Amino acid sequence: MKIKKLARIKVENRLQATIDIGSHSCILLIAAFDDVPVEAAKPEDSAEVKSETEVPAENKEAAEIVASTESATPSTSENENNESTTPAAQATTSESQATPATRKILVPKLQKVEVCRLGEDIYEHGKITPERIQELVQIMTKFRMDLHALGADLKAVAMTEAMRKAENPDEVIEAVEKAVWVKPRVITGEEEGKLTYRSVKEWHGSGFVTIDIGGGSTELSNGETTFSIPVGALKMFKAMGPIPGPEYKKFIKETFKDLSFKGMTKKPIYLIGGTGTALAMVFLNKQVFDYKAIEGLEMSLSDLEAVTTRITNLSKELRAMLPGLENGRHEVIICGLFWLRSLLEKLRVNTFKISTAGLRFGLLYPPEKEPEPKPKAKRTFNFAKKTQPNEQEIPEQVGDNIKTAGDDK
Questions:
Q1: pLDDT tens for each residue of 212-224
Q2: Total domains, the chain
Q3: What torsion, rounded to 10 degrees, do the Cα atoms 119, 233, 243, 295 define?
Q4: What is the pTM of this model?
Q5: In the listed set 321, 344, 362, which residue is the last one of a domain according to the structure?
Q6: What pLDDT digit, counting tens, does each position of 61-73 carry?
Q7: Within a domain: 260
């Protein structure tokens, strides 16, 4: 009796994960690429998809968010004036209606935030201290336990501004790799901005500018131009305290002195990062993170000013009780909001939208082809001397004969 050997088929794990290690906090994302109809509703109007498996909270200070979404490109209308169709065309139409086209959308299943404050060590010591490294390892160990509980594949671990400035990056990288079994990568500010823009583009299309305000840096991108500014909420807090004073005007003048925002002004704005999420939760008075309410939320400069004033007028203790301002966010939020207003004024816009996407999502998308540089137009010059009416043209040599103007007469 012959026994047939079954071929082993490698099945890609549906749940994929990334870790974003920033200057203020670390974020674990567990997500999956779901098939969504092309003509689906906008992300903020879509139905909520619950997490398939819940992970018990091991740290009460951790901000655990279980949220899901569906997103798609804007729908297109069909030609309603088509009066004559063949039976074959009608059959094709009915078949397409029965099986609508779909596309892959990255849907978050679990997001977990832990405060790490690596940026404080950079500001005070220029490197990450052993005590802070130990705290970071503990956070990474918790993340690894969540990954194993859900059976998710950790695809990437990215480190941003704090590690770009740290004097001892190798020491921190080695410690994190031992904790999560994946070697982290320190990415440039430009790459961080591009990945952030990509994450928003997949949900909302293009033609906008993203502002990602982190703890130690801020990235701006319009899809073609991307740059990073070494200014963040935590960095400002360490330099100016919880509420910026008169020195802020000089700080802004110096910061914007050599920056060019060409190609980014008067365009729709998407705000990314913890500052934006916290701002939305305070504005909406949401005690619990609600993706459907926050994603795509539009606010005006007057709304921003009202929230800033409200938070500023509270004591430190009461500020910490506002939604979204736990885990030390209440200390840096006002600096982040001051900085946001200055950026919006520089970009000459009166409204902006908030997105919960970000670097952690961009790390999971396949890389895009870099656009080819546009060839420079060649300038041509006409050095030919114009013939005057009373001048005879220069003879033209044709073979052995010489033709002059008037020979054909």
A1: 999 999 999 999 9
A2: 2
A3: -140
A4: 0.76
A5: 362
A6: 334 444 433 333 3
A7: yes
